[in-house]
Design a protein that fits this description.
CATH topology of the largest domain: Growth Hormone, Chain: A
CATH superfamily of the largest domain: MFS general substrate transporter like domains
Number of strands: 2
CATH class of the largest domain: Mainly Alpha
Helix content: over 70%
Length: 437
Amino acid sequence: MPEKKEKKSLKGYWLTTFLIGLGFFTMGLMDPLYDNYVPIFLGYYIEQNSLIGAIMTLDNILAIFLIPIFSAFSDRTHTRIGRRMPYIVTLLPITAVFFGLVPITAYQGLAILVVTIFLLNIAKQAVRGPVVALMPDMVPGDLRSEANGVINTMGGIATILGTILLARLMDVVVTVPGLGAKDKILAFPVASLFVILAVILLFIFVKEKNSKVSESDKEKAKEDKEPIFKSLKAVVAEEEKSALYILLSLLCWFIAYQGILPFVGKYTTEVLGTSAGTAALSSGMVGVAYAIFAVPSGRFAHKHGRKKTIRMALFALVIILALVFVHSAFLTGLNPTFRLYSFWALLFLFGIFWVTVVTNSFPMLWQMADYTTMGIYTGLYYFFSQLASIISPPLAGGATDLFGYPALFLYGMVFMLIAFILMKKVNRGEPEDLENE
């Protein structure tokens, strides 16, 4: 057995991590604008919320297929500029172009709007896996929790900027050739410019390291013609089940999160009586905590262990959701202002422990991969997380319809508890584990 190495510092990787995080930053700018305003654009032509909701799940449906496929493709790509970079420098600019066109096409007709949304999501979901897999290629395994914390912080800051600053540009009236003076446009092309700038900086300053891959590894990667299903089958067949259990755990905690998230705004307006504008602050509390505590949670796991940190955070989430359940079910007689502020406080606490889970789970899974399968494991992460985003909102919504809003938080609590139990069976993925890099 090799001697246990002294834990390294992220000091020499800050710039690289920051530059790679620009990809997450641009996603953080685009996603909240997309989620908040595309339903409004679709509402110009469609009255049924159910149909709008079906179109809004398009990105999740495409993600469940495209992220694993393109993550695995990038594993098998070997070029002078690297294996992830060819996808980044082609697909991210395409994403930027179609994102900037969304509000313009919204004024031109439903058909062209839906086509633009479809093409946008193909490009955006295809590039997401290579963008995410770039970090574990560049940063040593025992530093990935801290690096992932930095990247998640950048994504959280971008979400705040997208919802608070860029969103205000939607009120600015601009003149569009052929359409005249229109509002609800400017934020999208401005965000697209940030995406293009991020691609340029990534390409100039981030140089992928391909020297560690051997010819035998290249041939092994090329032989994987069905990486998604073969890798799923391989994970299930492994004698040591850590990878399987962490994937099942993350499926459960994303089922909990994706079940609650879509209904927080409705709960805030319908039960707590806030305005539509104020309702956005509820999910904003989670975002603020996400940005503040991503880096500290990575450092904590680096010192105390990823599994222990994630299980502690999951248990805390169970307790917090139990408190939210009590808050929603039994505290209806409290002063409305106190009830709203206490709900926001609980969501802020939820954000602290949620970012702790997210920041450290990806590095655990990466630690179980080798150089040739880094993209495949990235794809598996997204396969399970996007599967949760497809199946959970209808389940949570059904529970709410049958039993009222308190059932929403009970639903989340149960799945967080299942995730906590499953994580006990995970025995790999710590920084000190041997890697095949």
